[in-house]
Amino acid sequence: MTDTEWLTLIKKSPQQAHSVLIEKYGNLVYVIVVSKIGNYASREEIEDYVSDAFVEIFRCAEKFDSSKGTLKTFVSTIAKRTALNAFSRITYRCRNTKSMDDDEYEIASPADNPEEEIQKKMLCKRLWEIVESLGEPDASIIVYQYFYDMTVCETAKKLSMTPGAVQKRSIRARNQIKKILISENYFM
C-alpha cells in the first residue's frame, strides 16, 4: 500500500487504516522504542510505549504530507519522539525515587537557593521545547550528541547521513538554540 493509498484509506475507514499501519510499521516502531528505552523499561512498559507511539501517529495522521516525506519517515519520527519522551519520564522517575527499604531514607532538603533551582528547571524545559521545535533531523542530531553523548560519526551512522552534514546541521542547530535563548534573555 502506498502512502497516498493509506491517506485515502484513513478517510474511508480509520480502523482499517490503523490496522494497516500497525501491520506495516509495527516492527519498525517496536525496534525504535526498544533502541531508546530497552535497557530501562520492562517488556510490558515497552509494549505500552509502542502503543502510545501508534496512538500519537494516528492522532497526528492529518499532519502527514506525502509531498514532504514518506509515511515511514513520519512514523519513525513520531516513534522516536515518543520513545525519547518515555526515556525522560523513566529517568526522571528513577532519579526521584528512593527505596523505602533504605536505612538512610531522608526527606530531600530544600535547595540552597530556590530561585536558582526554579530558573534551572525553566531553562531545561525551554531548552527541550526549542530542541523539539528544530524539526528532523536537527532535533535528533542534538539529542544524540548531547543527550546520548554520541560522536559526530556515530550520529551520522545512526541517521544515515555523512559526518560533514551532521557537523554542519549541529552547528546551525546550536546557533539557532543560542539565538533563541539570548532573545528570551536566558543569557546575556
What is the count of DSSP helices, taking H or I runs of 4+ residues? 8
Tell me about the biggest sheet? none
Report the average pLDDT across residues. 79
Structural class: mainly alpha
Order of helices and strands: HHHHHHHH
Question: Quaternary status of these chains?
Answer: single chain
Task: Describe what this molecule looks like in 3D.
The structure is a single chain. With 188 residues, this protein is mainly α. The chain is 72% helix and 0% strand. It has eight helices and no strands. Helix 2 crosses helix 3 and helix 6 crosses helix 7. The radius of gyration is 20 Å and the shape is globular. The N and C termini lie far apart (53 Å).
What characteristics describe this protein?
188 residues; mainly alpha; 72% helix; globular
Task: Offer a quick outline of the entry.
This protein has 188 residues and is mostly helical. The chain has helices spanning 3-12, 14-37, 43-59, 71-95, 114-133, 138-147, 152-159, 163-183.
Map the helices and strands.
Layout: H1 3-12, H2 14-37, H3 43-59, H4 71-95, H5 114-133, H6 138-147, H7 152-159, H8 163-183
